[in-house]
Amino acid sequence: MKRILSGIQPSGKLTLGNYLGALRNWVNIQNEYDCMFFVADLHSITVTQDPKTLNENIKRIIMQYIACGLDPNKSTIFIQSHVHEHAELGWILNNSTYMGELGRMTQYKDKSAKQQNIKVGLFDYPVLMAADILLYDADYVPVGEDQRQHLEMTKTIAKRFNAQYGETFKIPEPYILKEGAKIMSLQDPSKKMSKSDSNPNAYISLFDEKDVIIKKFRRAVTDSLNTVRYSDEQPGIKNLINIYSCITGKNIQEIETEFEGTGYGKFKDTVADSVANKILSIQEKYNQLNKPENENIIKEVYQKGCERASSIASNKLKHVYKSVGFVVD
Ligand code: AQP
Question: Which of 59, 111, 170, 322 is catalytic?
Answer without folding.
Answer: 111
